[in-house]
Amino acid sequence: MTNAERLTLEQARRVADVVIRCLGLPHRFAQQEYEAELKRIAYHQRRNAEASRCHRKKRIEDYLAMGINPDRIKSVEPKSP
Questions:
Q1: Does the pLDDT value for residue 1 go beyond 70?
Q2: Number of other CB atoms surrounding residue 55 within 10 Å
Q3: In a domain, 79, yes or no
Q4: Is residue 78 part of a domain?
Q5: What is the pLDDT, as a whole number, of residue 24?
Q6: To bridge 4 with a disulfide, which of 48, 67, 69, 81 should be the other Cys (CB 3.0-4.6 Å)?
Q7: What is the pLDDT of residues 10-43, one digit of tens each?
Q8: How many domains is the chain built from?
């Protein structure tokens, strides 16, 4: 799972909100609300992933234009969970 595929805090809040809003609703209506929210989240996940790819591509182009080889940049290893 990449960072772009993880739920954002806002998405988690929206999921909790939908669950609470649907507590008293008949199953059919609650299911419709759940599915609508899942579609919304999937849309934003796709957009976040695309934005991440575009941002990375742009940074690489900028580095190359400055004469910097992006593969030679020292990076910090991510912290383990």
A1: no
A2: 10
A3: no
A4: no
A5: 92
A6: 48
A7: 999 999 999 999 999 999 999 999 999 999 999 9
A8: 1
What are the angstrom distances between the C-alpha of 14 and each of 27, 37, 40, 42, 70? 19, 8, 10, 13, 37
Which residues have a Cβ under 8 Å from the Cβ of 22 and sit 6 or more positions away? 29, 30, 33, 34
In a domain? residue 80: no
pLDDT by residue (tens digit) across 45-76? Answer: 999 889 989 999 999 999 999 998 888 888 76
* Domain that residue 12 falls in: 3-72
Nearest CA-CA partner of 34 in 47, 17, 51: 17
Among residues 58, 63, 62, the alpha carbon closest in space to that of 73 is found at 63
pLDDT score of 72? 84
- 81 within some domain: no
